[in-house]
Amino acid sequence: MNRGIIDLTTADLALVYGLVLLTVGLARWRGIGQEREMLWASLRMVVQLFAVGYVLHLIFALQSAAPVLLILLMMGVFAVQAVAGRVKQKMPRFYRVVALAIFVGCGGATFFFCNLVIGLSPWYDPRYLIPLAGMIIGNSMTGATLAAERLAAEMKERREEIETSLCLGATSTQAARSAVRSAFRAALIPSVNSMAAMGIVFLPGMMTGQILSGTEPIIAVKYQIAIMCVITGSVAATSLLILVQGYRGYFTSNHQLRDLSDFNPRAGG
């Protein structure tokens, strides 16, 4: 029997929010000391999601390309800022490198899926484009963070190895190859693990949401498989762009390793 979507009342939300308060109480009882952060994060979640909900409701009603593109641009900018906030030791030209990688990698993957696979009409249909882009950018953000952080760590830890390779006649590309390869492997681990566990350990959010809204399970599965393939491709493209651009900043034009102390880990360039 198809009952349609079951709406949640304010009382329902208040009831489930009690679980957050219970978690805060447990943290206080055990002396973890993160009660304020938990409460602040949960309140931000509620406010942010309701705000996004009302904005999306307005954009769906407008049916215009301009606000959709503005939303996508803001998502990209916030993604760059989020990556910057998570990476402590930043590579040279950090913001330029990460911004270009996210806009090209995520933008290309979103365009490929929405226009060449799904064939959206109109191409900016906000009901599809915004949530799909959000999933692609959100997952790619994790890969970008791991790639940037790992590359900086590898370049620092392998400094002697890289300098030895340069002394033996290697180019900067050859000397940094192991560091780039290790960082790329680290960036792909979450996507690989997620694909391996999906359907057995957990049901993914997109598929669950479609089933709850009344979509046939097989159709929901097809969409989930498709979006996971696109997310994996986007994570790989974004991470690789960061690594390919990023490692060059550690070398001079004469293939000499720069002094790491020259880089301001907070400014980023």
Explain the overall architecture.
Keywords: Membrane, Transmembrane, Transmembrane helix. It is a multi-pass membrane protein. This protein has 269 residues and is mainly alpha-helical. The chain has ten helices and no strands. It has helices at residues 10-29, 35-62, 65-86, 94-117, 126-157, 159-167, 172-175, 177-197, 205-212, 217-246. Helix 5 packs across helix 8 (177-197). The longest helix has 32 residues, at 126-157. The mean pLDDT is 89.
Top keywords for this entry?
single chain; 269 residues; mainly alpha; globular
What is the gist of this entry?
The chain has 269 residues and is mainly alpha-helical.
Which SSEs are present, and which pair or pack?
Layout (H helix, E strand, L loop, with lengths): L9 H20 L5 H28 L2 H22 L7 H24 L8 H32 L1 H9 L4 H4 L1 H21 L7 H8 L4 H30 L23
Helix pairs in contact: 1-2, 3-4, 3-5, 4-5, 4-10, 5-8, 5-10, 8-10, 9-10
Global structural class: mainly alpha
Low-confidence stretches: none
N-to-C terminal Cα separation, in Å? 59 Å
Helical content (DSSP H or I, runs of 4+): over 70%
Work out the radius of gyration: 22 Å
Biggest beta-sheet profile:
none
Number of helices: 10
- Nearest-integer average pLDDT: 89
Total E-strand runs: 0
Q: How does the overall form come out from the CA principal axes? A: globular
H/E series: HHHHHHHHHH
Strand % is under 5%
